[in-house]
Amino acid sequence: MFSARDPADVERFFRGLTEYAFHARLGVVDPPLVDYVSVMLVRFMRNERLTVLPGAGEESSDVGHLLLAAERHADPAEAREEYRHIGDVTLFWSGLYPEALARYRRPGPHADLVGYKAAGRRAYSLVAALEPEDAAAERALFERLAHEYDLCVAGLAEVRRAWGDAA
């Protein structure tokens, strides 16, 4: 029996929805990309990972400020992790809850969905550029996330539709 409290069941649920959305609805068969998106969804099921909420009223909720903060890191590993989080957060909100972004428009460079997505694409590109030389597979994955960002947003919108159908 399915249990929302069992992490394995939650992971299977999101993996299944993500595979269905990308494979069946969009025709995208890219296992590393689909796996990454499904794992991201599971991570964000834990509220502490959603520290960046559009319009939360904190300076840290603006992706422009986050990108600038990540650029100040001297340690490439720390910067890479921050850029990855920025990419993940923008992808999550753009794909699953774009209406929340519209509701919380604020003045500034990322006040619209297009700017928000551009920040996510840029963040994933920077992750790819900061990957160590011996991490070719990871670099390729983040390059695909940057180049296929809009496709991933569409995939997450399909996940949301399927999620609603499953409820």
In short:
With 167 residues, this protein is an all-alpha fold. The chain is built from eight helices and no strands.
Would you mind describing this structure in some detail?
With 167 residues, this protein is mainly α. The chain has a domain at 53-166. The protein is 70% helix and 0% strand. It contains eight helices and no strands. The longest helix is centred in the middle third of the chain and has 21 residues, at 76-96. The relative contact order is 0.16.
Residues in helices, as a percent range: over 70%
List the quaternary state of the chains: single chain
| Radius of gyration of CA atoms, rounded to a whole number | 16 Å
Average pLDDT, all residues: 81
- What is the overall number of helices? 8
Distance between the termini: 15 Å
Determine the structural class based on helices, strands and strand pairing.
mainly alpha
Dominant shape: globular
